[in-house]
Specification:
- Pathway: tRNA modification; 5-methoxycarbonylmethyl-2-thiouridine-tRNA biosynthesis.
- By secondary structure, the chain is an alpha/beta fold.
- Helices cover 34% and strands 23% of the residues.
- It contains 8 helices and 9 strands.
- The chain has helices spanning 15-27, 41-50, 55-60, 69-77, 102-112, 131-135, 140-157, 175-187; strands spanning 4-10, 31-36, 64-68, 123-128, 161-167, 190-195, 207-213, 225-233, 238-241.
- The chain has a 9-stranded mixed beta sheet, with helices on both faces.
- β8 (225-233) and β9 (238-241) form a beta hairpin.
- α5 (102-112) packs parallel to α7 and α7 (140-157) runs parallel beside α8 (175-187).
- The longest helix is centred in the middle third of the chain and has 18 residues, at 140-157.
- It is globular, with a radius of gyration of 19 Å.
C-alpha cells in the first residue's frame, strides 16, 4: 500500500503491463480509477476478457471508474460534452487557456474517496498513458503537479497505489516528455522499464524488462535493486526468462 509504480517503455509497447495491473487489481477486489487516454473502453475490455476479467461488470458494480480520454477529448472539442452532476469535464484544460489539471485531479479524488457503503480493499489509480497529457497541451509542471497531488491523496491519505505508464525515448527531441519521465523516475517506488531489443525484431524474444526497486528512497544508504529479464508476449500471458535463455535458443 502507498506505492507509486512507474511503467516506462522505450522502442517498444509496454501496454501489456497496464492490462496486467488492471486485471490484477480488479481481481484483488480494489477500487480502480482508470484514466485511459490511449485506447477505447472496448479495447481494454476485450483484452481484460482474455485475462478473465469483465470491465463492464466491474463498472456496473462500482468497482471500476473509467475515464475514456479519446471520447472526452472529441466531445470537448466539438462542444458535445455534458456536465455530469454539475461538474466540469476532467479534461477541461483542453478548451481553456490555462494548463490546469485540477478538474482531472478532482475526478480522481472523487472516484477513489470511499463512500460509507464501499467494501473495496484499497484505491488504485491507473493512467495510460501520461505522455498524452503533454500532447493535449498540458505543461510538464502541470502534469507533475497532478501526479504529486494524486500521490498525496491516493498513496498517503487513502493508503492506495498508483500505476502510471509513460513513453520515453532517450534519443528523442521531446524535452518536455523526457523532463516528466526523469522526474517521475526519481519519485517512484518501483520502475518497470520495458525496452525493445537493440538488435532489432525477434519473434521469440519481444524485448527486455528492467525491474528497479527504489531501495534508496528509504534512506538506508543502499543501492537500488535492479533485475533484468527478457520476455515473450503470448496470447493470454507473458513469459519471462534470463537474458540469452529463451526456449528458442536453448
Amino acid at each position: 500500500q502507498g506505492k507509486f509504480t512507474l511503467l516506462r517503455d522505450t522502442r517498444t509497447d509496454g501496454s501489456f503491463l497496464v492490462h496486467h495491473f488492471l486485471s490484477f487489481y480488479l481481481r484483488a477486489g480494489c477500487k480502480v480509477c482508470f484514466v485511459a487516454l490511449l485506447q477505447s473502453f472496448s479495447h481494454y475490455n476485450i483484452v481484460a476478457q482474455k485475462l478473465g476479467v469483465s470491465l463492464t461488470a466491474a463498472k456496473e458494480r462500482g468497482q471500476l471508474v473509467f475515464l475514456e480520454g479519446l471520447k472526452s477529448c472529441l466531445d470537448l472539442l466539438f462542444g458535445e460534452e455534458e456536465e455530469q452532476s454539475g461538474q466540469p469535464s476532467p479534461l477541461q484544460f483542453i478548451s481553456e487557456s490555462a494548463s490546469n489539471l485540477k478538474a482531472l485531479f478532482d475526478f480522481v479524488r472523487t472516484s477513489l474517496t470511499p463512500a460509507g457503503s464501499d467494501s473495496w480493499k484499497g484505491p488504485v489509480l491507473l493512467v495510460d498513458d501520461l505522455s498524452v497529457l503533454l500532447s493535449l497541451g498540458a505543461t510538464p509542471v502541470a502534469v507533475l503537479d497532478f501526479i504529486h497531488y494524486c500521490r498525496v491523496t491516493v498513496c498517503s491519505q487513502l493508503k492506495g497505489n498508483i500505476v502510471v505508464l509513460v513513453h520515453s525515448n532517450e534519443d528523442s527531441e521531446d524535452e518536455e516528455n523526457e523532463l516528466v519521465v526523469n522526474s517521475l523516475c526519481h519519485h517512484s517506488d518501483l520502475i518497470l522499464w520495458v525496452e525493445g531489443l537493440v538488435t532489432g525484431f525477434c519473434k521469440d524474444v519481444h524485448g527486455q524488462i528492467k525491474i528497479i526497486r527504489r531501495v534508496s528512497l528509504e534512506l538506508t544508504a543502499e543501492q537500488d535493486l535492479i533485475q533484468i529479464y527478457q520476455y515473450k508476449i503470448q496470447d493470454k500471458n507473458v513469459t519471462f526468462f534470463a537474458r540469452g535463455l529463451s526456449a528458442a535458443v536453448l
